[in-house]
Structures are given as structure tokens and as C-alpha cells.
Amino acid sequence: MELEQLKSQLTGFLKANREQIFTAQNLADGLRMTDSQEYKQVVNALNASVRDGDAIDIKNGYQYNKNAGYTIGEYRANDKGFGFVKYDDDDELPDFFINPENTLQAMQGDTVRVSTLKPSPTPDRGPEGKVEEILEHAYERIVGTFSLGSEARNMIGELHLSDKKTMNFKVLVSGDGLTPNDGQVVVAEVTRFPDKIHPREIIATVTETLGYKDEPGMDILQIVYSKKVPNEFPQEVLDDALEIPSEVSESEWAGREDITEQTLVTIDGADTKDIDDAVVAWKLDNGNYHLGVHIADVSHYVTEGSSIDAEAYNRGTSVYLTDRVIPMLPRNISNGIASLNPNVVRLAMSAEMEIDPQGNVVNHRLHTSVMKSHARMTYDVVNKILEGDVFVQDEYAKLVPMFKVMGELHEILYNMRKKRGAIEFDTPEAQIIVDEDGKATDIKVRERGTAERMIESFMLAANETVAEHFDKLKVPFLYRIHETPDADRAKSFFEFSKALGHPVVGDPSKVTPIMLQKLMEDVAGDPAEQMISTMMLRAMKQAKYSPDPVGHFGLGAEYYTHFTSPIRRYPDLTVHRLIKWYERHGHGVQAQEKYASHLGKIGEDTSSRERRAIDTERDVDALKKAEYMMDKVNLEFDGVVNSALKFGLFISLENTVEGLVHISNLTDDHYEYDESHAALIGRSKHRIFQIGQKVRVKVLRVNKDERVVDFVLVNPEDAPTTDIRVASKAHGKFGKGRNRDERRKNERRGKSEGPRPKRAPLDSKQGHKRDSKRNF
Question: What is the pLDDT of residue 1?
Fold first, then answer.
């Protein structure tokens, strides 16, 4: 049966029985699709119904979606009273427009149910809608600085909020909760949201005091609380974690392969304490390579249904901030029994691969094991070994031959990925140095050497191998996916690149990674390189977790999952459980049923929590960068235009600090925005400012609380001139749709709102974790 036909049949049945919940097994039995292949078709059809909004997957199965026919999205407010509802994570579809009388007083970030009043008048303009219900308030709990006194009756004071999205609301504090001291940072529960009578007023009750505003670390803690990142483990979780032994017992060896004699090593950042992967490699007699990637068996200790598991799911991922880590698991697990510390026995999940000289995995085994790390290596040390430092090579003489084999294998794997079209965005990452009080004192750009890239290659190989193994078994599984760019957005990007003199060879409706990789090779070293790279990145979709094995576009991988970081990512922990489950119970219908109905929900929730972590990390970085720049007002710096928008230019300095040259500070001409070229162009003197352009700026203003750095151009007359005249119409979805959303976010104050929104990680490089192995 065709997928669409099967989906329609299942949706119709769920709709006719809308109050009931059905498992995939129930529905497959009813359709008499009972063998394992037919069962997988039923699961795929159900997941498609969930994606289309016709059904919902919950813990016990599937149910008809009562909101079918409506649109669920995130409300985005405008100071003028109207708003927009974003309902497409990939920004392919234009937002709903909501008139002031139809907002239901929704606030920024609220999850709302919207009905359609008028359809989209044009492809690049959204429909008009009406908020029918606020399903979830984004700010049920708020964080701010308390001040005594209020003109309102029965109120004890006000809260001054640091979150830019709620700064325009007056928050009155009732006397029903705690009574904090003046200047204390507090957590408050909202007891009355804005309504028609009080559209800009919130009433809240203080439930917790965090400390005084100027205390060390309070700035970061405010962001953590405002982003709703769980940062303290419930006592039950800590108590249960303490019940876990600190050493591996002899009984736990049963059924596991003993690989303690293999020369496994860990390679991480010098400050890493949660070590979850060890590697080993050697050359085989047939000319191939053996690669062993051995991952901490966290699932042995964190069992399904336990308090520790529930809290790990709630967190979704560890969060890596400037001077601290908010771990997914209690530290006696993440830094203790699950961490692959040197010279101690540990339980592992092993992926052993045989790789030929072309980089193909020609053989593999997945199994549980007992292992021992023979050395705790750092990236810096391994880089010196690979670079030929004789003193370091002498110190690690016994391991040097293996590291040389690893270096060879990395080159093979890298060239294989490059050949198939993997795209690598080598954007600089900042390391913010803080003093003992948490104040930013320096910013350094992280360097990725061969050792970092080598470990990346090995983790990617393991992740792909595991994903391919289970995709070919045709069983429900959790994948890390990165979908092909939308055809319209790809077309607009192709036109943009062509206008810069670098046409993309190929059909935008059938875009492949190789097309984009070839473009990046063509523009390497060209002045347009950064501009094209940035716009390409914005044309991409977000990477996420899903039970649908659609592959990973950015990596050019047909199969991909996350297997290598179960200490700090819940999806990896889920993948380990799936591996064990199918190993013990086979691949039949009954075995498939256990996870089939809720893998979609796990993927959705963990993707959302990953985005929450990324947003928190970015906000903290922006805060600390602004703090670092506070004593640099009136100093000059070299920078690069990172984005040109209607309201001004975002400039990145060499140390990765980003700030805005507001349009009001471009006083040498009247500048207008040309969307087709993503540029600001002077009306009279025709000076042009585009992405990638080098500029000299002076720091005009810094506001740490708002995480804002404002610049002014030192020599605007040095900008090149152009014959381009500002386009009168938007340049399709890619130009207008993307930048329209950024304008809405930033124009509300008429000044800088801080760093531009950025895409979720594409997994094409290692990412932002302190040991450089977080976001494959």
C-alpha cells in the first residue's frame, strides 16, 4: 500500500475514534499488516500523520490531533500591537499575520492555536490569522531584579527584567509570596498575564531568591533561569545516583567482550571531566584499517523509568557555559562511573569497524564490552605528536605508532567525506577567559588542529555505521537528520550566488551537497567567500532528531545518528538502549513495538531541548562578550560585515565579538536595503556594504544587561561604490522571508537587539563543547 493511502486510512480511523489511543501494533493488526516489513510501513505512515499534524504520538500510542485544521505556532509580538505566528521551524513558509484585535493578548514566545482568516495573498506573504487559544505561556516563570515600592494597590514592588523579550512589560509583585530585599534577583510565578484592560502589565509572585544582582555568577544564572534550563538536580535524583557503585563489579562483566588489553586511549580537551569516548586503531594485514570507537555504557546505569532517566530527558543535553557546565546527569555518573578515566575498568558500547583505503566501512560489529583506557590524551599533546615534536613523541613512544596510523586513517575518512560532498563551515569559535569572579578578561579564537579533526572523523564514522546498521534492518530507530534545502530557498540562493559572479552548477530543485561543496571550492580566497558561505548557511534547514532515516545533507551522509555522547545527549542514550533492545529481542514486530510509538516524540522533545541549550549558550556568550567590551568604548577595531539588514550592519571583530552599526549612525548618505544582494547601498554616493566586507569601527556603546555592542564606522568613505540600484521588490523566500523575520526581531526597539539569530548546528564540524566534541 502506498504511504499516502495508508496514512489517509490511518488518519481517518483515528479521527473516527478521536478519544481513544492506539498503539502501532493495534493499528497494524487491524489492517492485517503483521509481518515486520508491513509493520514498519504502518509506523512510517503514523509518523507522517504526526508530522502533518493529523495525529499526535504520546507515551501509550497514537491519537487523533484535536487541533487538526488549526495551526500551532510561536507568537512573535510587535510593539505596535500586531504580531506574527511562526509555525515552520525551517522558515520555508511565511508567518501568520495577526491583527491587534485578534492576538488574545499573547506574549512573545507563547505557543498558540491559530485559525486562518485570509489565505496568503502571495507566496512570500503569510496568511492572516486569529489566535484562538494560548496553549502554553512562554513566561509562566520570570527572572528579574526586585525593587521596593509600587504605585499599584496591594503590590509590594516591581521586577526589572533583563530578558529583552519581556522588557517592555511592567511586572508588579504581589505580597502573596516571598518578600525579597531591594536589589535581589528573584524568580517569580506569573499570576496574571496581560489582558485587554492591562495589555502591558503582568502580576507575579516571588517564589525564590537567587542573590544580589552584582554577585559573581548572578548574570549567567539569570539567563539560565529565564531560559528554563534545569540546573539543580532533585534530591531524589541525587539520592538514586549515590546508589550507583563507583567501580565495575565482576558480575557486570557477564556477556560482555573483554577488550581491556587493547591499547585504547581517550583524546579530549585538557579540562574535560566527562569522558565518553575512547579510540583504538591499527593496520590490518590486508591493507585495511581497524577502527574501534568505544563509548561509555551510560544506559547500564541510567535505566528507563528511573528518576535519573526522567531528569535526563527533561534536560535533554548538557549545557556548556563560559565558566560552568550544567550536566545532563549527576556528576558521580558523568564524571565518575560513566567517564572513561585512565587505567580503570569501565563498561562500554563498542563499534568496531574495518575500513578500506578508500574510506568505506567494509565490515563492522556492535557489541557491549569491558574496557580500560591506557592513556588520557589531550588534543594539544596529540597535535604535537602528529606535527613531529620529538620531545613529546619520546614521552609517548609506545603510542606514537598508533597515532600515526590514526592520522593516516583520518586523512582517508576526510577525503572520502569530501568526495561525497560533505560541506564544512569553518567559522571561528570563541573561548572566553574569565577571572575567579566570572568576569570576562579575554577572548581567544579556538584553533582546531589535526587531533580535533581526527576524533571528529572517527566519531562520524561510528555514527554513520550505527545508523546504516539499523536502517538496513528496517526497524524503528532514532536518527540525526539534516534535510535537503527547500527548492525555493535553494533557487534564491543560486540566483544570489550567480549575481556575485559565482553560479552554482546544477538544478536547485535537486540540490546536492557536491554542488555546494564545489561552489565553496570555487570561491575559496575570493572576496565573496564569506558572503556566499553565510547565505548558504542561512539557506540550510536545521539538523534535528527523527525516526525518519532521511540522511544528513550537510555531511553528505545517507545514514546518520548520534551514538557517541550518551553522557551529555539524551538521543545517544536512547540509541544505546535501542541497540541493546534489538540485540536481545530480535527485529520482529513485537520487538519493534516497544519504541515505535514514541521515538517521534523523543526526537521532537530532544531537538527542542537542544535548541534551548544552544540559545542559552549563545546568550551567555553574548553577555560575556559585551562585558569584555565594556571598557573598550571609543576604541577602534578591524571588523567584517557579518550581515546587512534594513536597520543596519552587523559587524564581527577578529575576536568574534559582534555588534551593530545602526542605520541612524550611517550619516554619510541615505542608505537603503537591497534584498537581492543582501546589501545596504547609499542613495547618492552609491557606497555599498555587504557580507564579508572589511571595515574599521569604533565602539560607540556597550550594554551588558541587554547584551548589546554598538559600533560606528570610522571611514565609511573607504567603502566601494556600485552601479546597483536598490531593488524595489523582494527577492523571493530566501531574501525576503529570512530577513523579514530578523527585521521583526530587531526593529521593535529601533536599535541593536544583540547578535543575529543563527541556525541550529548542521553537524559539519565539531561545535561548541569545551572538548570540541559536542555537536556532530
Answer: 67
